[in-house]
Design brief:
This protein is of the alpha/beta class and about 325 residues long. It has nine helices and 13 strands. A seven-stranded mixed β-sheet has the order 5-11-6-7-8-9-10. Strands 1-2-3 form a three-stranded antiparallel β-sheet. The longest helix has 19 residues. The chain binds flavin-adenine dinucleotide. Flavin-adenine dinucleotide (FAD) binds next to helix 9.
Length: about 325
């Protein structure tokens, strides 16, 4: 059925789900499988930009609408969303320049089609972040970096789950950008299209920080500082697309359902504030630390517990495990 759930409240032994249209459904258990949240609007974006200049959610509409060949587009972010936005603009026939900026300017690497077999790691790696990084580097010298990253895959969730919160936070702060571009790669054909756009001078990836954005006629004037530089540079762009990736902080979700659940103390952010706090059985942990007997969550919003739970194969495994645990669903 179609409908937006705007509230879920515990009722007796089960749950009552209130829909935006006013209807109420009842269930023994509720599984939040709400996918990713839209990205956070960067603080540098002012509220008074001319209409249509800033696209807050690249998935919500047509990012190429109204652009012409002489226009310039700024993508905030250089990850998979920026790659997708660049290809969307190209596919729409946009012929102007695209500039993608992120702090490090790191871009997802292409897959290596010649990589046929990834040697198994005999056992789950152990040690702190520095030791693990050394291990991956040394394995990369023997078997190539793609295989050295891919052979961690069967162990990633367990490594994350067993890491103390402090180590997880340090990983997010220091290693995540490297992890993201090496682990979440793009198809070789996509890599070739992106390289071709770069060669033609239609797309560039820059490392730097946005300093200010202000209205300039029907466009926006962007001041940014290149990484490592003292001075700033200016750009005038017709469109700015927010490619900073999904938000994870459930206390700032802007989604009615999550806001209701957070206000009622039924969900809380995980220690890294990248999703909903759940236990190892996908039970949502309430504000007081108690796992719910009837409210569960799966998918990207549980990345705080498992880290690698964004790709469909990982979500499939999580779903299967949860289905076996809820009576009558397996
Ligand atoms: C551009 C892009 C490319 C990707 N490429 C790949 C890929 O190649 N391989 C891969 O494995 N993964 C890929 N992913 C990731 C993958 O698509 C997602 O992680 C996955 O779809 C998540 O599945 P899900 O069922 O948890 O959520 P979703 O597929 O996002 O579904 C969530 C559903 O919940 C609904 N919903 C949310 N809130 C409410 C509410 N309050 N009431 C009612 N309904 C609600 C939404 O409308 C939606 O239908 C990609 C993601 C993106 C954005």
């Amino acid at each position: 059925m179609a409908g937006e759930a705007v509230a879920v409240t515990r009722e007796g032994e089960g749950e009552a789900i209130q829909l935006a249209g006013g209807e109420t459904l009842r269930a023994d258990a509720v599984i939040l499988s709400i996918g990713n949240l839209p990205p956070i609007v960067p603080a540098v974006i002012p509220a008074d930009l001319p209409e249509g200049v800033f696209v807050a959610d690249p998935w919500a509409g047509d990012i190429a609408a109204g652009l012409s060949a002489g226009d310039r587009v700024l993508l905030i972010g250089t990850g998979l969303t920026a790659i997708d936005a660049a290809l969307t603009l190209e596919a729409s026939g946009f012929e102007g320049r695209i500039i993608a900026i992120s702090r490090r300017g790191m871009v997802p690497r292409p897959h290596d089609r010649s990589l046929l077999e990834v040697p198994n790691l005999p056992e789950r790696p152990s040690g702190g972040m520095a030791e693990m990084t050394r291990m991956v580097r040394s394995n990369a010298e023997r078997i190539g970096w793609q295989a050295a990253v891919d052979q961690l895959r069967p162990h990633t969730q367990a490594l994350w789950a067993s890491a103390p919160a402090g180590r997880r936070k340090r990983f997010l702060r220091h290693l995540r950008p490297y992890w993201d571009v090496h682990r979440h790669r793009i198809a070789p054909e996509i890599g070739e299209r992106i390289e071709a756009m770069q060669r033609q001078g239609r797309l560039s990836f820059e490392a730097g920080k946005l300093v200010s954005v202000e209205p300039s006629g029907a466009a926006a004037r962007v001041t940014w500082r290149r990484r490592g530089a003292d001075g700033t540079e200016e750009l005038t762009v017709t469109r700015i697309v927010n490619c900073t990736g999904p938000r994870g902080d459930v206390t700032r979700s802007g989604e009615p359902l999550l806001e209701q659940l957070a206000a009622a103390g039924r969900v809380r952010p995980d220690p890294c504030r990248i999703g909903i706090d759940v236990d190892e059985n996908c039970r949502v942990i309430a504000g007081d630390g108690t796992p719910s007997p009837s409210l569960y969550a799966i998918g990207p919003m549980t990345r705080g517990a498992l880290w690698e739970v964004v790709a469909v194969p990982d979500i499939r495994v999580q779903t299967d495990k949860l289905a076996r645990q809820i009576p009558g669903t397996a």
